[in-house]
Amino acid sequence: MSRLLRTIRLDPSDALVFPRAAEPGEWAVPGGFCFWDDDVAALEGKRRQAFRAGFLGLASFGWSTLVQVASATPAQREEAVAALAAHIRAAHGAPDDTAARAAAEEEIAFAESLCDHPPGTLVALARSAEGGEVRERFRTLHERPQEHRRFDALPVFAAVSVDGEDEAPIRPDLARMARAPTGATPDPPTRDAPGAKDGA
């Protein structure tokens, strides 16, 4: 039994800010390879938000702001690798099945390296371009340990402290986005929070 990342949706914002939102419960990878051919400095709107804060779901190939650590059987891991390899071959120009499989295995292995936490742990990412390179920072969220006496407003998750994180998170104004004219692209929320674990 291994551990992989699985998409989770805690509010409706993913459906509003990404080009396509992943469904809850999909196996997922960071998915930074999807932007290899993009001029990331020129990205706008929903594509820009996918670059900045999206994990790639491996069923819909949509995006998710949050994933959680989940146990996976060998058969489920193989299913995730096969789905990703087929996508890399079809959508990203891998020269053959062997190359696509190798790239998928590498991405799945990287996702596994982020799962050194108990099942159910939430993981978020902030992706940016720095010095001509794409950098991914990850942070985890855990259950808040303190006791509560008011059961009408229980904060279920709290962010673990992260070095250098001195700004409150910016959350999307869902009401404003819902009122946007049809066809308009709302400004995406920003989640520029440096994390404790880096990956390229």
How is this structure best summarized?
By secondary structure, the chain is α+β, with helices and mostly antiparallel strands. It has one domain (2-199).
Notes on the protein architecture:
There is one protein chain. With 200 residues, this protein is of the alpha+beta class. It has helices at residues 13-17, 45-53, 74-91, 97-113, 174-178; strands at residues 2-8, 27-29, 55-57, 63-64, 66-72, 122-130, 133-143, 157-159, 197-199. Strands 1, 2, 3, 4, 5, 6, 7, 8 and 9 form a nine-stranded antiparallel β-sheet that branches. The longest helix is centred in the middle third of the chain and has 18 residues, at 74-91. The radius of gyration is 17 Å and the shape is globular. 32% of the residues are buried. Mean pLDDT is 80; it is low at 151-200.
Chain-wise SSE layout:
Layout lengths: L1 E7 L4 H5 L9 E3 L15 H9 L1 E3 L5 E2 L1 E7 L1 H18 L5 H17 L8 E9 L2 E11 L13 E3 L14 H5 L18 E3 L1
Antiparallel strand pairs: 1-2, 1-5, 2-3, 3-4, 5-6, 6-7, 7-8, 7-9
Q: What is the arithmetic mean of pLDDT? A: 80
Overall spatial form: globular
Number of helices: 5
Strand proportion, as a percent range, falls in 15-25%
Number of domains: 1
List keywords for this structure.
200 residues, alpha+beta, nine-stranded antiparallel beta sheet, 5 helices, 27% helix
